[in-house]
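[Discussion] Sanity-checking designs against the backbone

I'm trying to build intuition for which residues belong where. Below is a structure token string of 633 positions. I'd appreciate it if someone posts a full sequence so I can compare it with mine line by line.
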């Protein structure tokens, strides 16, 4: 369920103005009140409730409903009503007490107040736009673009942010005057004023100090199991459990723990693994995750393992379909093919919710190598030296890398950038995108913008910066609409994130073993080959092979992009064309994953801007379920 249509709300009953609503064709949500402001209601396809002049729309689910209901003395099954009780107890701060994946709207008719809120995962998007004393909100941008007086115009500053990967804290979108509620925030609209407030403040979390180091791994496993269990309980009668499962630690841990929980109830789970169609070798990565995933599936007899081949959908069909559905460019087009195909395969098998582990590398499986810098900063030099020796002895870091991490806090920006360039091939966001430097600089995002943003931040702050950098809500909404399957990520659960952020950094690389926290937590629960694997998997490793058939389409698109003023000013189109003519050996030397991410992100943005200008972005009508799914479901 979601707010598929727009709700127009004129919150000025004291002026005697009546509600005037323009809704989408599906009429999913309605808002109304009389001219005296005495009777206001929100209702629609999403769960809603109206009581004593107050009403709530809820998209998503509250995980801690039972605990809240016990505190408030109400029914946990009626979650919208539960939210009203929470509001009456704690006022506008009540979202701070909620655990779950949700977007909500609450109207208080007595005080002429509207409250919007999203949980910290951001998997349920919520957009809004204001004109004078009127505010409209919706779960999709397209619903707000129909509001009279709204112009379809690109937001240049947001485009610069997106290209420079500097969107942290911003609530802008690609459309001027349309905003998105940041995850973990609430919006209060009262007397024509919009006020945004953070409801999640992890910076204030104290560090967790345990007597026995083994307890950190036990604690992680316990909180992760709770997050997975809450998401399994959302399955309705007759639905089937499903999980994405790569060959790495994150999604394998989620799938294994979910399988263990379901096995106790005599239930099964489908685990879907994306595998390449063509054999590809990439240094220091394993490109076919099928064998590792199969080892996990074999360990749990209630797992039905499904291999999904990459390459079933063309890149530009994915770019067009999803950019129309989510009303923004695709950040990483190479992954949309296999994720979409997994969703389609899941739907055919009766799965409506897939568990993933997409942000685990920032939470449960963080490598912890930055502990070297943190320990030195804290004056714990002996512990830093011991960890440095262990990391080198185990073959995880060369002495050059060890020295880099130990000295990094005192390095000037130019030195850090030079070393980063030697280690990764680029030294800043401007080198990892195809932005025109003049365009970036004109919007305050010069070559050192990201470095200044990160300067002086400790490991926890840097992880939070990354977690807040990208809002996955529009993407998750698009996958729900186009496949009928929702995705949920327990590695991004609030309780899991808070636990991982409170663990001292050295416990993520205990005895010089990066990602040791999750490795220790999953001892005996994952096959040893998976649990101790040092290499990272690489999804869509054979993307370059499949893209050969679309090379001409990419060159043709470049010609069309040159006619779009915004694309010409924002993107370095000559450099993009030059990259299109690189040889395969040069691509491999540059690093294939970085090359494709850099090139495709630019093509995605340019095509989005071109389709926005010529109107084709909005002409494509997407069904709730893809036709291919509907025919075989």
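Best answer:
Here's mine. Compare freely.
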């Amino acid at each position: 369920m979601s707010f598929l249509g727009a709700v127009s709300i004129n919150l000025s009953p004291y002026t005697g103005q009546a509600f005037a609503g323009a809704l989408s064709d599906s009429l999913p949500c309605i808002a109304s009140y009389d001219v005296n402001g005495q009777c206001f209601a929100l209702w629609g396809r999403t769960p809603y409730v109206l009581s004593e002049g107050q009403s709530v729309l809820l998209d998503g689910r509250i995980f801690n409903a039972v605990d809240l209901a016990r505190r408030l003395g109400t029914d946990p099954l009626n979650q919208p009503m539960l939210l009203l009780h929470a509001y009456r107890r704690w006022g506008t701060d009540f979202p701070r007490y909620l655990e779950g994946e949700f977007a909500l709207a609450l109207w208080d008719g007595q005080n002429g107040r509207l409250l919007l809120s999203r949980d910290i995962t951001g998997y349920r998007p919520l957009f809004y736009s204001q004109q004078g004393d009127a505010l409209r909100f919706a779960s999709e941008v397209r619903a707000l673009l129909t509001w009279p007086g709204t112009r379809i115009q690109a937001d240049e500053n947001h485009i610069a942010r997106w290209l420079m990967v500097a969107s942290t804290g911003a609530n802008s979108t690609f459309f001027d005057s349309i905003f998105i509620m940041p995850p973990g925030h609430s919006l209060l609209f009262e007397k024509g004023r919009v006020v945004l407030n953070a409801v999640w403040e992890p910076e204030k979390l104290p560090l967790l100090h345990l007597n026995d180091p083994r307890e950190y791994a036990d604690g992680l496993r316990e909180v992760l199991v709770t997050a997975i269990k809450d998401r399994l309980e959302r399955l309705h009668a007759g639905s089937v459990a499903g999980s994405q499962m790569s060959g790495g630690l994150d999604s394998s841990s989620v799938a294994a723990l979910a399988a263990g929980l379901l096995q106790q109830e005599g239930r099964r789970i489908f685990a879907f693994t994306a595998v390449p169609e063509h054999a590809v070798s990439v240094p220091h990565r394993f490109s076919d995750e099928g064998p590792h995933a199969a080892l996990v599936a074999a360990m749990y007899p209630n797992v039905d393992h499904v291999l999904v081949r990459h390459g079933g959908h063309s890149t530009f069909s994915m770019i067009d379909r999803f950019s129309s559905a989510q009303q923004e460019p695709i950040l990483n087009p190479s992954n949309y093919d296999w994720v979409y195909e997994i969703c389609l395969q899941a739907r055919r098998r009766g799965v409506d919710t897939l568990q993933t582990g997409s942000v685990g590398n920032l939470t449960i499986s963080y490598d912890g190598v930055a502990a070297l810098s943190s320990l030195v900063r804290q004056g714990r030099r002996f512990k830093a030296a011991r960890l440095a020796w262990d990391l080198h002895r185990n073959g995880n870091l060369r002495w050059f890398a060890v020295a880099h991490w130990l000295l990094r806090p005192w390095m000037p920006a130019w030195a850090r950038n030079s070393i980063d360039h030697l280690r990764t091939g680029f030294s800043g966001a401007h080198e990892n995108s195809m932005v025109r430097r003049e365009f970036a600089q004109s919007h305050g995002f010069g070559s050192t913008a990201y470095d200044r943003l990160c300067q002086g931040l400790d490991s926890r702050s840097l992880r939070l910066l990354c977690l807040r950098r990208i809002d996955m809500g529009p993407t998750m909404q698009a996958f729900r609409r186009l496949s009928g399957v929702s995705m949920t990520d327990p590695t991004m659960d609030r309780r899991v994130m808070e636990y991982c952020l409170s663990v001292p950094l050295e416990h993520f690389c205990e005895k010089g073993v990066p990602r040791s926290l999750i490795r220790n937590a999953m001892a005996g629960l994952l096959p040893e080959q998976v649990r101790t694997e040092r290499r990272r998997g690489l999804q869509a490793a054979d993307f370059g092979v499949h893209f050969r058939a679309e090379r001409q389409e990419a060159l043709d698109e470049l010609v069309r992009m040159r006619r779009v003023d915004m694309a010409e000013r924002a993107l370095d189109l000559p450099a993009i064309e030059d990259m299109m003519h690189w040889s395969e050996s040069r691509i491999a030397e540059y690093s294939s994953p970085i090359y494709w991410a850099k090139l495709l992100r630019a093509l995605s943005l340019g095509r989005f801007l071109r389709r926005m200008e010529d109107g084709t972005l909005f002409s494509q009508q997407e069904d709730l379920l893809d036709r291919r799914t509907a025919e075989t479901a």
